[in-house]
Queue: 3 jobs
Job 1
Amino acid sequence: MTTGLNPETGVILFAHGSRDPLWRLPIDAVAQEMTRQWPGLSVACAFLELTTPDLPTTVKTLMMQGKTHLRIVPMFLGVGRHAREDLPQLVNDLVKAYPQVQFELVPSIGEHTAMTQLMAQIAANAVTSA
């Protein structure tokens, strides 16, 4: 991500959700770290089910902050039905509901080469440090 942040852009970290309230802590930590590294960047979390807020609620919150470009980052390691079908349908519904907003759905983090490399390093460190 570049340092020349567009003040009209917001980032939504989208995750599955869980009944366990502690489940969301790693997603919240990513949002906090992004805000720490890029103080001018507007970052929010949204969840598919069982955890609040949901995606439409987060979109409305960011729109009220004047955001007109929303980048949705699926925080999924594997690309299953939620990433392939449910999320694109949610985004399509939002595009229809809010034509004044530009929605950008990026690939799931698990598809990113850097994530694969980082997970490999963490797994190898667990073995080599034992």
Job 2
Amino acid sequence: MTSQTLSSALEGFLGGSSAAVVMEDGAVVFDLERAKYSVSGENNKCLLHLWSEERNAVRRVLDVETKGETLRLMVQKFGQARATRLEIHRERDPRSASAKRMARASYQRVLERALKKHFADWTLLQLNTAMDLERSFGPIYARGMMKRGLSAFAVLGVNRQELQSSIDASLTFGILWLDSCRSAHTGKLVIEGLKLFIPRGCAALVRERAAHLDQSAAKWELYELDERTDECIGLDVLDCGNVNTRLVRCPEETEIQERFAEPIALVRGLMSEAEIAAVSPAEVSFRCHGLEFARARLTAAPGQPWGMPEIVFGAGPEERVLDGRTMPEFQTLIRSVGEVRHAEGPHECRWWRLHPERWLESLVVRNVTALENQFDPRFVYSQVPAFYASDRGMIDVLTVTREGRLAVIELKADEDIHLPLQGIDYWSRVVWHQERDEFHKFGYFAGREISGDSPLLVMVAPALHVHPATDILLRYISPRIEWAVLGIDERWRKELRVVFRKRP
């Protein structure tokens, strides 16, 4: 196949796959809901460039093969002669429905054997994976109970073939299952806590989250289960080791404005209200109410120590380099986005509906005191620290109160059952950096003294889109986390206004 043929096949498949995932060596490496890509078929080479907040990859494509909803690529990494396989799946879990049922039924038998083997003095009550939509339980997790006398434990397990995001989410459903067991057996059994079983080598995020649960509310027991041998190893949830996090340096605003003066002037000439966000010292993002439509990045150039700025554009996963040939497309894109991406825009339009959380984030960054008057509007950072153990790359908003206390703001534009535990993810990592005084070291909160008090955790969602399970999950969070849930007016695009506040 020629480079042009390969490029056409790639672009044709990816063009209709905005929610696809890219897998390499059996693991998801890019999620096209949050990542970007570009395809080049020039110089007799087909190059696929993929990048996100966490990683960057360029592969030379040698061959492509379509199998149903999967595109299989034979690719080469730079500097390596051996070809490897890359797969792009339109569906996040490409298994058939029957394959999922078989894997879950098999796992249920494995878990039952392991429980009887390792907890012989406990009586296992029936495990099941039945749907229970009223209480948010689906077939992914095997659920049951173990009892000994009047004492009992809720049990929940998840198999290795499920997506890592489902494994990471198991603690949310484990807490809900524990609470459900307690409600169903009030006055009959004392449900001491939860025994949660995770595939071997997959428990890092769950373990970090469990460390910040209320140890007096329940006993939290976490196990890694080897499905081949039925062996399980108990993990100490209070001994997490190093938190898997890093902090990127805060770009210096004046330098960014000088370095990217020409691209900024070009974009502002086409859309005066465009938001400009520094992604790094070598890259800036151009957005309209949180929707990124272009980036300027530095590319190598002779005699230029920082390189020369280059603009790439595209409001979806695909991005193209701006040049004389693509300028009309760039102008059309900006005009199309600007005409509909506003509070009164047509709700059915794609540009209006895309990335509502980023839209909400842009409003919070612009007017953080609309949430709480105690926040200091001079120090508001969005999408900054990178969290590699999580299914999300960045914290939504980090700010500070007028008294100098850090505040972590987690935003949801739609109903999300995982809001409290995702909030814990970001809160715990901010604590990690705070204890090492890394915010000042990396250029954040310059000239502002930071209190030694632990950060506030503020969770924000439209009032009618706070998940019903949120109250249950919050009851099990460690009391040392001071949290607040803010319900905002459903018409938040027009006006950011809090209509209710909930605290412990």
Job 3
Amino acid sequence: MNAKKNEVGKLASATSGRPGFSRRDLLKSAAFLGGSAALAGQVPGFLAGLAEGRTDYLAPEVDYPLAKPEQILYSVCQQCNTQCGIKAKIQNGIVAKIDGNPFSPWNLTPHLPYKTSPFITAAVDGLLCPKGQAGVQAAYDPYRIVKVLKRAGKRGEGKWITIPFDQAIDEIVKGGYLFKHVAGEENRKVDGLKTIRALEDAKLTREMADDVAKIWKKEMTVAEFKEKHKSRLHLLIDPNHPDLGPKNNQFVFMSGRMKGGRGDLVGRFVKDSFGSVNAHGHTTVCQGSLYFTGKAMSEQYLLDEKELKYKWTGGKKFYWQADTEKSEFILFVGASPFEGNYGPTNRAGRITNGMIDGRLKIAVVDPRLSKTAAKAWKWVPITGNLTGAMPLG
């Protein structure tokens, strides 16, 4: 046990950058800086314990109950698109605190070897932004939807009832008269997924899609299409508009951002298995602008062999980020990594280390004197109408 504590002490010293910075020192500093108030919000029953005269939560010789490997679940944060690694600290079956996963290179600088024992890393927390730590509130939000809701009134009335999960699957797949309890919809029959999945022959699907492409190229008319497929027109949404495709396309899967293979899984189900083309996600205006800016930055002036003329092309639609670990100069335009910005969370630490070491200078172009601008070598308080003029200059 003593050897294990020594290893934890060495690791804490290495990651904090302060030689000999022990857990005892940490608790002393935390108490001095008001850390006890933060601890009160992290540990259920903390204030109640103090009211009963308990002080062992603050005693340096007492093990922090949430720093035990058996009390920790490693996962991924979903509070934003960065998806940092997290460690959820469990007490009495409840998530009491969320911190950064020290095994994740996005959450800790310098990185830890993956072979490091979880018995050691249990006491080491990686970085995690406030959104990630707020995952506790998201998990236990009293308004969080944890059961299947079914409309109990007219659209827009905001009336809902809860139904069992098995019933929801049965109604979604089979359809039927699902809203007999809603005035005016007693006789409305809803098609289920079983009915909507009308076209099941993959070969026929490809053949009809190829003929639709011929219509677009004016190599086939709609009348010719209908004559060729007259025995299959009942499979289409509208025979007079074969470009709408089969009834399968009436199934639309709308999602938020899905990374880490989730989008691929949905594509396999909706497109490959069900036969609908309508699997759609979304992004934000700021996210899209980043991607397309990265695409423009990486495009090359190349010869288009078909048109026999040069054009800008070949760019990668990707979020290009500065190398904060090695760069000597970084220009931030409308970005403030010291406040709230796109991850990973260790960007601020790398920028700070570079500025302290004298390796890095940063300049900030922003109408607001942000915290990042306040630390910058140069701050350019540009106004909105000059944003485009500056890079063109």
